[in-house]
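Subject: sequence -> structure tokens, single chain

Hey, anyone have a minute? Need the predicted structure for the following. Not urgent.
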Amino acid sequence: MTQTFLVEIGTEELPPTSLKELSDAFTSGIEKGLSAQKIGFDNSRAFATPRRLAVIVEGLAEKTPIEENKVWGPPAKIAFDSDGNPTKAAQAFAKKNNIAVESLMTESDGKQDKLVCTSTSGGEESKQLLADIVRNALTNLPIKKRMRWGASRTEFVRPVQWIVLMLDEELIKESILGTEAGQATRGHRFHANEFLSISNVDQYDMLLYNKGKIIADFDKRKAEIKRQVESAADKINGTAVISEDLLDEVTGLVEWPVALAGRFDEDFLSVPAQALISSMKEHQKYFHVVDKKNKLMPYFITVSNIESKAPEKVVDGNERVIRPRLADAAFFYNTDKNTSLEDRREKLKTVLFQAKLGSIFDKTERIKQLAGFISEAISNVDKNLVERAAQLCKSDLVSSMVYEFPDMQGIAGFHYALNDGEPEAVAQAIEEQYMPKFAGDAVPVSDVGAIIALADRIDTITGIFGIGLKPTGSKDPFALRRASLGILRILVEKSYALDLKELVSFAASNFSELPAKETVVSDVLSYCLERFKAWYEEENIAPEIFQAVHAKQLSTPLDINHRVHAVAAFTQLPQAQSLAAANKRVSNILNKQDGVIPASVDIALLKEDAEKALNQALADSYEQAAPLVKQSQYTQALSALAALKDPVDAFFDNVMVMTDDSAVRDNRLALLNQLRNVFLEVADISYLVVKA
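Reply:
Had a minute. Here:
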């Protein structure tokens, strides 16, 4: 027979941005606690609203399973003497297991007779264990800062108002977080502000919905909000832009969602759209609306926590609130336009980038130098535009708009640059310098923007590594992991065949002093290229494929990427594993040689047909592959080399490499060395050997 268990922690309003995380962690903690106690259950259901965390566990076993435990002791021949009397070994075993010596029993363990102590464990009632399981789950919640309330020493994320702890229809009389558990939950703060008695836990969520005016299930409430917001936007012939983070936050703010559309003055649309969107999203938690051309419309959608009898008054109230917010954004924008980005540069000297690396102004000077260097290596790029964009790229950081709305950095600079009469390419680069901002975000479209984005990231990571502040574990205050991945993505996706080692070396030379200058280039290069691992994991490319290329110690990311995909294609060929194994064998043979291996093969010393055939096949394959490698057509090159499988197999089947004749032996080693080197033109395919 099974039961259904309910735990609900009723609180003051929980932090909306972490509500889902808290709910997931609480549910996981309950499940782990049940598993640790070996209490069986079918499934669990999580519930989370601004004022509660709850979990229902269905199919809960009434008791823990009874298990037979055997403790084996010494062999019977050691436990008893020739007269059958217990020895000291038997007495010690009896004492250790708290049994009488005369009660000792023997049993075969499959090999010999031994002393054995048999006992049973388990059989505890689940009801007696549930409160501690809940306490442990609550203790382990990811709460950054816990609160105390009243005179109590109890701590939790928010003050606790009530606790529910039930099995089916039965109350579990326990105290948790300083509160006695009961059988009553609480309804909506405005629509049903009263305790609701739970007669059976199966009715929990429907009781809250029907009588409490609460959608307790986070995911169901989230889906309902999304549906309502989309419907409200559709009624005004627009499309609501629903970001996942805002949707989660709004779901964490309301228990009974009602989406309402409001309007603001069209005059505000003269302000950059992102500023208006930021104001609506960050301050008011509104969803913005766009038209069919993806242009911002003078509407917003708010999600109320009450179902008002006069919704127009709720809308009017929200419109009154948003008007001064948008007016502030307009004021900042119009005021900022009175000062050019060039004039703002001087103020950057007072803004610290990093204590040992100087100001933001200093950083823009370094970006200018590095960006200019990069631009010279990329065709059809105006170096003057690149250097101008570099000088101005951080000027908007000291504007009122960015101070008020930090996510406007770059975007504000774009508009201010156009207002100042700067070239459109410069303005675009100022906006694109932060791309990609997150995983999956696009890289800069323009070359000028891509170069500024590269230079900015390389300067940051070189400087931070140069003063010894490498990321460790989960600590990455300068977001260097994201920066390094951004560097790789720009170089690869923009098809820039640039040597990252050269770029980092140049970046390092721009700093007047770096304590770790001797190792900074190799450290940064190694750190950046390590990010390729995660990149290729997402593409389902096996780690050994990247390792085969990484073994060549290359430093041009675009070239590395071409080679990795070529090796990935090569592994799909039927000859791949045989050739990989042969290369592994060749590497093992050559690595054991102490002497100098001849640079070339002496045809006169080739005696066996198999070695003559391999030598000719190598010459033919190299003739095909060499020009392909020069043109970076690595996939075609490896495909040409795949023809070596049969002559390589025949060589190892019929030729003894380590023959007593030293001249012949060295000649065969030279042949194998050529075999290895022809593949090393692309990658070390010996890494591709599949381990059994």
